[in-house]
């Protein structure tokens, strides 16, 4: 996975090749220290930020492409204005069909 500083500010492109938004940050799980999700701003005027998994990204040509349709991205759970809880992460993993994290406090 590329360094998070390379990802920040890059456009996020959906499975159809359309730009969905910009990457504002990379969420790192505090328990494992691993980068888990991209924090994506999908609207220029609203401050909504969605979390998209890092597991299947492709970085090329100054953009980050994910294998998800636009609708899936913009309907994803919003990034809370606080640190993610275990329940928040479970909700995200369920939404994106990711395996559960074991041994999480």
In brief, what are we looking at here?
With 105 residues, the chain is α+β, with helices and mostly antiparallel strands. The chain is 18% helix and 30% strand.
Q: Could you please say which CATH topology applies here?
A: Photosynthetic Reaction Center, Chain H, domain 2
Query: What is the chain-wise order of helices and strands?
Result: HEEEEEEHH
Instruction: Quickly give the CATH architecture.
Output: Alpha-Beta Complex
**How confident overall, as mean pLDDT?**
88
Q: Looking at the structure, what is the overall shape?
A: globular
* CATH level 1 class label: Alpha Beta
SS field, number of helical segments: 3
Secondary-structure content class: alpha+beta
Organism: Sporichthya brevicatena
Domain PRC-barrel: 7-72
InterPro entries: Bac_photo_RC_H_C, PRC-brl_dom, PRC_barrel-like_sf
Protein name: PRC-barrel domain-containing protein
């Amino acid at each position: 996975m590329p360094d998070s500083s390379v990802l920040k500010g890059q456009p996020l492109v959906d499975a159809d090749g359309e730009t969905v938004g910009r990457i504002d940050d990379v969420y790192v799980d505090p328990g494992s220290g691993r980068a888990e999700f991209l924090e994506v701003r999908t609207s220029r005027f609203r401050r909504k930020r969605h979390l998209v998994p890092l597991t299947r990204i492709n970085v090329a040509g100054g953009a980050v492409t994910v294998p998800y349709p636009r609708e899936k991205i913009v309907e994803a759970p919003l990034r809370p204005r606080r640190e993610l809880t275990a329940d928040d992460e479970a909700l995200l993993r369920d939404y994106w069909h990711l395996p559960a994290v074991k041994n999480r406090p």
